């Protein structure tokens, strides 16, 4: 079992992107980074359109059931989560060029630090890479545990509660849905595929943000360290030319981070 999991995780790695390999592959899997082919783009954009229409149906359901406070609050909770989720995807598409620029910069700098002759650089990269993997995989696991619990909740309640099951059969109580929405047809037998896919959007977008913030934190730590030695030490000061070179280098790194 352990070896199987290790092989699966290894497939997520990318030698060309030592830090961002898993997150980039997850973003591509769920279409937050669109494929280059026209057909692939149309598929993912169609999924986004369908999800957007589904969210609209959730708000329609809230309007119809506005007098039922419990139903309204429950639907409002899921509708807000769905709305934020779709907005995340839209912003990834709208700012695609900027996101790709960040990925390119992060990968370039990360590889430079990994190949640095300075052992402190290499150790810093090793630590934040390990931390990123831990955070990423734990978040993916917890995220999908949450989604699966949401999807199986209606069926579990129906199977485990004889009173609820009888109430559903005699019509005194409605069957609990995964997410409440309005459709002009019977949707009570529909699966929770949309919720599972939505979970992929959440986990891919959020872990990408985590990893990038961890990277920039590590880069700021290294920049602070290098700024301390701009002029060498009191016992071993550097030349004016060397000090100017170090200042220019740190200034450029600072500007790159700000950009």
UniProtKB/TrEMBL annotation:
GO terms of molecular function: odorant binding; olfactory receptor activity
Key words, A-Z: Cell membrane, Membrane, Olfaction, Receptor, Sensory transduction, Transducer, Transmembrane, Transmembrane helix
Pfam families for this protein: 7tm_6 (PF02949)
Any GO BP annotation: signal transduction
Protein name: Olfactory receptor 56
UniProt main location, coarse: membrane
Localisation per UniProt entry: Cell membrane
Organism: Danaus plexippus plexippus
Membrane disposition: Multi-pass membrane protein
InterPro entries, per the entry: 7tm6_olfct_rcpt (IPR004117)
Membrane spanning stretches: 42-64, 76-95, 134-156, 194-216
This protein's GO CC annotations: plasma membrane
Keyword Repeat: no
């Amino acid at each position: 079992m352990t070896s199987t999991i290790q092989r699966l995780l290894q497939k997520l790695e990318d030698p060309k992107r030592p830090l961002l390999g898993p997150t980039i592959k997850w973003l591509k899997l769920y279409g937050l980074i669109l494929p280059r082919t026209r057909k692939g783009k149309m598929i993912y954009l169609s999924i986004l359109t369908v999800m957007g229409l589904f969210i609209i149906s959730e708000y329609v359901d809230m309007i119809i059931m506005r007098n039922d406070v419990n139903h309204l609050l429950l639907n409002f909770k899921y509708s807000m989560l769905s709305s934020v989720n779709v907005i995340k995807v839209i912003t990834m598409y709208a700012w695609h060029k900027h996101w790709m620029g960040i990925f390119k910069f992060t990968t370039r700098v990360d590889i430079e630090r990994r190949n640095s002759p300075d052992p402190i650089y290499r150790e810093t990269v090793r630590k934040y890479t390990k931390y990123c993997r831990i955070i990423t995989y734990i978040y993916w696991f917890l995220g999908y545990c949450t989604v699966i619990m949401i999807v199986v909740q209606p069926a579990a309640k129906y199977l485990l509660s004889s009173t609820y099951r009888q109430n559903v059969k005699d019509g005194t109580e409605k069957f609990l849905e995964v997410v409440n929405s309005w459709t002009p047809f019977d949707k009570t037998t529909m699966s929770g595929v949309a919720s599972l896919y939505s979970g992929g959007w959440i986990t891919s977008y959020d872990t990408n943000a985590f990893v990038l913030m961890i990277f920039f934190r590590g880069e700021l730590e290294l920049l602070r360290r290098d700024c301390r030695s701009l002029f060498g030490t009191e016992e071993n000061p550097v030349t004016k030319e060397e000090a100017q070179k170090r200042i220019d280098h740190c200034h450029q790194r600072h500007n790159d981070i700000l950009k």
